[in-house]
UniProtKB/TrEMBL annotation, chain A:
<dbReference type="InterPro" id="IPR006059">
    <property type="entry name" value="SBP"/>
</dbReference>
<feature type="signal peptide">
    <location>
        <begin position="1"/>
        <end position="18"/>
    </location>
</feature>
<dbReference type="InterPro" id="IPR050490">
    <property type="entry name" value="Bact_solute-bd_prot1"/>
</dbReference>
<protein>
    <submittedName>
        <fullName>Extracellular solute-binding protein</fullName>
    </submittedName>
</protein>
<dbReference type="InterPro" id="IPR006311">
    <property type="entry name" value="TAT_signal"/>
</dbReference>
<keyword id="KW-0732">Signal</keyword>
<dbReference type="Pfam" id="PF01547">
    <property type="entry name" value="SBP_bac_1"/>
</dbReference>
Automatic annotation (TrEMBL), chain B:
<dbReference type="InterPro" id="IPR051393">
    <property type="entry name" value="ABC_transporter_permease"/>
</dbReference>
<feature type="transmembrane region" description="Helical">
    <location>
        <begin position="193"/>
        <end position="216"/>
    </location>
</feature>
<feature type="transmembrane region" description="Helical">
    <location>
        <begin position="33"/>
        <end position="54"/>
    </location>
</feature>
<comment type="similarity">
    <text>Belongs to the binding-protein-dependent transport system permease family.</text>
</comment>
<dbReference type="Pfam" id="PF00528">
    <property type="entry name" value="BPD_transp_1"/>
</dbReference>
<feature type="transmembrane region" description="Helical">
    <location>
        <begin position="290"/>
        <end position="313"/>
    </location>
</feature>
<keyword id="KW-0472">Membrane</keyword>
<dbReference type="GO" id="GO:0005886">
    <property type="term" value="C:plasma membrane"/>
</dbReference>
<keyword id="KW-1133">Transmembrane helix</keyword>
Length: 494, 323
């Protein structure tokens, strides 16, 4: 009989521990290696473009057929959660080879400075497929090297009024156009709520997703006349182009917030909205519990993909505005996808990305009805839902190109990356106003503006202290005209 | 030099320090297996507790977003900013409110239920104990998500019940209204963790010898008198420990809050841990250095509770030995 003594037990335990530590230590490397060994190059790709999932996966499959051994592992994130996932993955050296930057808030320049991305390989081929004026230093190009490129048009916004045609019609509204003014919106929302008898409400929104809420407030303020120059995705880059000052304490922002608050006071907001984000709000809206829902052009793409039974009830109208004739400003289109600096497959990933600049891909973009593609002609010829075509028409009628301080002086991006976001943000203030916690709207906005102004001054001092040529004057555009496109030529003249 | 023990016997000759070292070495060698078995724990404790504390102290003195290589040493600036940050104080206040409200309820209710379930004549006592302990072992994140549906103002079962019974005429937005969200989170927290407090009390009740009850009965004590003059006095030393254990647990309410409300609406459920997490990782412009400073400050608060706990344990031990 074999004896199992203390020494033998300890010896076996030690060996097991060593083996376990060895396995644990190898895990991260072996995940990548095993994937590579199993099927050649594996490109990990994370984005948040849900309606585009079939299109992108078709492109990946085609690429895999043309390049045997290359396989793409694709993951589509909820934009509300993607920023956290990216930060954790980057820190643990497990980020995807190609990824979008939804939810990060940080400027592209800051991420480039922090070493997040690799310049794209095969830059000339990618540049050749894109309009020359679509690539800007500080936004897509850094130190002369192309890091990303826009897939989507600047002429769009995220506060289209999507509505349930059936509920709107039942409440006496226009099921083809929807309400044009704030008053009409409010009145229709009240009628839908009344007709719903507790089963349907006038308006639903993902009020928990405060970054998106901030976008809606900003766009409603623009529809009320707020002029905005735009640098970066966060609210730290939005200023009045004439003065270069933050405009959050101006009347249009106050009025936009009062408009949203009036909906709460009228009790026309779907009750669970405060606990919803954009996706869950859309999913609820598609069940017929609310009449109207603010979202971008991609809404119909998601409905078409996930809630097909609801697609015939979908209608779309312009962002409501005080007078019914909104003018909005769109920032120069940013890049959507980047190749990670941690990627071991920069060439393959760049080659794959280059496929997204082809006319076929842009036609596909239109077909799957996500954000409006850079190539607007693609929409005209694509087989899309009428509401998507209508959305693109509305964008064409209402959106003007905004001046961008970053496009004028790319060093402004360094100021943005130095700035720390003051809290509460505009989105959080909006949550506070709608929940009744913030009662003095103008005071809250004035304080927010004051904090942003002080923070921008500090950041500018820090950056210019490093010998970089940047000043607050970079945010002023004396030759900007309200309601007009700010063209590339105007940057040179300013 | 000779070393003389307290008893006066000369035991070791030669220089004092090497002899002491030799003695220590001999003791370590003689207990070597104990140290070998302690090694993995010490290693893991060092890696996952001591090292993060040291790292946090270091990070707390950096201006660093945690994303890139660029970081600058700012000394105590993050601490100064934290002490002037209204949201930090608000989050600490909310954490303390949660402790002040939930700990007495959990401890009091836990004791009450433990007294009932400790009765050997109670039928199905084990079933009730298990039922109360099930939420403890259920994943908090899942509870958080499920509670979102349960308290949903649009068709959630709680609102449906309230409407059907005519208690309310409009659905209550339990998690979306700043006036009710904190209370709702606290209610769920108490329900989830009552089982663990119950187990503490049941364990404490087992320490009371049956002979004491027999003696009390012999002296003519009924149920109420036994409770008042035997059970409660003998449980008294445990009270402080259970209160402090419960309070320290409650400070770590992170996962429930994150999944139920994410600190909202408008900061109404923003606990310290959630705020630290938001600053360090979940903000659109993350600030790891600042988050680390907030973490160190919150750690000091926890440490204060732990110190009180240590004093409490000493008091409890002394009280037990005198009783």
């Amino acid at each position: 009989m074999t004896t199992f003594g203390r020494r033998r037990f300890l010896g076996l335990s030690g060996a097991a521990l060593a083996a376990a530590l060895g396995v644990a230590g190898c895990t991260r490397t072996s995940q990548k290696e095993a994937a590579t060994a199993a099927g050649g190059d594996v490109i990990r790709w994370w984005d948040h473009f849900q309606p585009l999932q079939p299109l992108n996966e078709r492109i990946f499959a085609e690429y895999g057929r043309a390049h045997p051994g290359v396989r793409v592992e694709h993951e589509v994130y909820n934009p509300n959660e993607m920023g956290q996932a990216l930060q954790l993955a980057f820190k643990s050296n497990q980020i995807a080879d190609v990824h979008s930057i939804a939810g990060m808030g940080t400027s592209e320049a800051a991420l480039v400075a922090d070493g997040w991305f690799s310049p794209l390989a095969g830059q000339d081929a990618i540049r050749a497929n894109l309009p020359a004026d679509s690539l800007l230093e500080g936004l897509h190009v850094f130190d002369g090297k192309l890091h990303t490129f826009p897939l989507f048009s600047s002429r769009q916004y995220a506060t289209l009024n999507w509505f349930n045609r059936e509920l709107v019609e039942k409440a006496g509204g226009d099921p083809d156009k929807g309400p044009a003014t704030w008053d009409a919106f409010r009145s229709l929302a009240a009628r839908i709520t009344k007709a719903g008898g507790g089963r349907a409400y006038g308006w639903i929104q993902g009020l928990q997703f405060h970054e998106r809420l901030q976008t809606h407030v900003t766009e409603l303020a623009m529809s009320a006349g707020a002029p905005l120059a735009m640098a970066g995705a966060s609210g730290m880059g939005l200023v009045d182009p004439k003065t270069g000052e933050y405009a959050y304490a101006s009347d249009p922002f106050v009025h936009a917030l009062e408009f949203l608050l009036s909906l709460v006071r009228d009790k026309v907001v779907f009750p669970a909205s405060t606990s919803l984000d954009a996706r869950t709000a859309r999913a609820r809206w598609a069940t017929g519990v609310a009449g109207m829902f603010f979202d971008g052009s991609w809404n119909v793409g998601v409905v078409n993909g996930q809630f097909k039974q609801f697609i015939d009830k979908v209608g779309v109208g312009s962002i409501p505005s005080p007078e019914g004739e909104p003018v909005l400003y769109g920032a120069p289109a940013p890049g959507q996808l980047f190749v990670s600096s941690q990627s071991e497959h920069v060439e393959v990933a760049s080659d794959l990305l280059a496929r997204l600049t082809s006319p076929e891909y842009h036609k596909g973009l239109a077909t799957f009805m996500d954000q409006v593609p850079l190539d607007l002609d693609a929409v005209a010829t694509a087989d899309v839902h009428p509401t998507y075509k209508r959305a693109v028409e509305l964008f064409g009628q209402t959106v003007r190109l905004a001046p961008s301080p970053v496009a004028r002086n790319s060093a402004v991006a360094q100021v943005l990356s130095e700035m720390k976001q003051p809290r509460p943000t505009l989105g959080e203030i909006t949550q506070g106003i709608l929940s009744g916690e913030v009662t003095d709207i103008r005071k809250a906005l004035r304080e927010h503006t004051g904090k942003l102004t002080a923070e921008r001054e500090r950041a500018t001092r820090v950056v210019s202290g490093k010998g970089v040529k940047v000043s607050l004057d970079d945010w002023k555009f004396a030759n900007w005209q309200p309601g007009e496109d700010y063209t590339a030529k105007m940057y040179q003249a300013s | 030099m000779n070393i003389v023990t307290r008893e006066g016997a000369v035991t070791v000759s030669g220089p004092a320090v090497p002899a002491r070292r030799r003695r220590l070495a001999t003791r370590i060698w003689s207990e070597r297996w104990a140290y070998v078995f302690l090694l993995p724990t010490l290693l893991l404790f060092g890696l996952y507790t001591v090292w993060p504390i040291i790292s946090s102290l270091f990070y707390s003195m950096l201006d660093w977003n945690g994303l890139g290589a660029e970081r600058s040493f700012v000394g105590l600036a993050n601490y100064r900013e934290a002490l002037a940050d209204p949201l930090f104080w608000k989050s600490l206040g909310i954490t303390l409110v949660i402790i002040a409200v939930t700990v007495p309820v959990r401890v009091g209710l836990g004791l009450l239920v433990a007294l009932v379930l400790n009765n050997p004549r109670l039928p199905l006592a084990k079933l009730f104990r298990t039922a109360l302990f099930v939420p403890v072992v259920t994943t908090t994140a899942i509870i958080g998500v499920v509670m979102g549906f349960i308290f949903d103002p649009a068709g959630g079962p709680v609102n449906q019940l309230l409407l059907d019974l005519g208690i309310v005429d409009q659905p209550v937005d339990f998690l979306g209204d700043p006036g009710s969200s904190l209370w709702t989170v606290m209610g769920v927290h108490m329900w989830k963790w009552l089982g663990i407090t119950l187990v503490y009390w049941l364990a404490a009740l087992q320490t009371i010898p049956a002979t004491v009850y027999e003696a009390a009965r012999t002296d003519g004590a009924g149920g109420w008198a036994s409770l008042r003059y035997v059970t409660l006095p003998m449980l008294k030393p445990f009270l402080l420990i259970i209160v402090l254990l419960t309070a320290i647990e409650t400070m770590q309410i992170f996962d429930l809050v994150l999944t139920m409300t994410n600190g909202g609406p408008y900061f109404s459920t923003l606990t310290s841990e959630v705020y630290i997490y938001q600053q360090a990782f979940a903000s659109s412009t993350p600030r790891l250095g600042y988050g680390a400073a907030l973490g160190v400050l919150f750690g000091l608060v926890t440490l204060a509770f732990t110190a009180i706990q240590a004093i409490g344990i000493r008091y409890a031990n002394r009280a037990r030995s005198t009783s």
